[in-house]
Design a protein that fits this description.
One of its GO terms (biological process) is defense response. By secondary structure, the chain is α+β, with helices and mostly antiparallel strands. Helix content is 20%, strand content 33%. It has one domain: Immunoglobulin-like, CATH 2.60.40.
Length: 189
């Protein structure tokens, strides 16, 4: 009973705090421990910073087995104060599970410190958002290392804003010039 009350209290406190959202690209994993000895392993990843605030999940990889590929962007919310320098142990946690019909079996866990990946900057500026893939060790529930996880957290916490085209057509340039001329003409009058 006390645990239920404590969980509700923490949930209300987390809801009252200002939340921040970051995007994490979960790319793939290699050489995971095969925890499904009879059937084919179908892994998925659960991503969170604070489990009691928000948890995101990837799809199940039906064919990868011990070398799954997700290539999926997940959005994770956490209390904004966790990104401060005082919380040096705050991390993006990735728990990998094997999907099962009866129960989910834990495969392993990886974590990346927020202070190592979030560097600030402007999400619209490519120079502030370099492409960098992190490879981190996956640790079995027993504490032994087994496998690697490839992921990417942009330094700004958001991926680049997609544009339809980076080139300009002659017509767009002519329309922009006409607008500038019209504005200057209005100012002179």
């Amino acid at each position: 009973m006390n645990q239920v009350v404590e969980f509700r209290r923490r949930s209300k406190t987390a809801a009252a705090a200002k939340l921040r959202e970051i995007e994490v690209l979960i790319i793939s994993a290699q050489d995971l421990k095969d925890v499904k000895h009879v059937t084919h392993m179908r892994p998925y990843a659960v991503v969170y910073v604070e489990k009691d605030v928000h948890v995101a999940r990837t799809r199940v990889d039906e064919h990868g087995g011990t070398n799954p590929t997700w290539n999926e962007v997940v959005r994770v919310k956490f209390r904004e104060e966790m990104a401060d320098k005082e919380h040096v142990l705050a991390a993006v946690n990735v728990d990998i599970y094997a999907h099962g019909h009866v129960r989910e079996k834990p495969v392993g866990r990886a974590r990346v410190l927020l202070c190592d990946v979030l560097k600030g900057g402007d999400a619209r500026e490519p120079a502030d958002n370099p492409i960098q893939c992190l490879t981190v060790q996956v640790w079995r529930p027993s504490g032994r290392p087994q496998g690697l996880l490839n992921l990417w957290v942009p330094p700004t916490g958001r991926f680049l804003i997609r544009r339809e085209s980076l080139s300009f057509s002659e017509r767009e340039e002519a329309e922009e010039e006409e607008e500038v001329v019209a504005v200057k003409g209005d100012e002179e009058e």
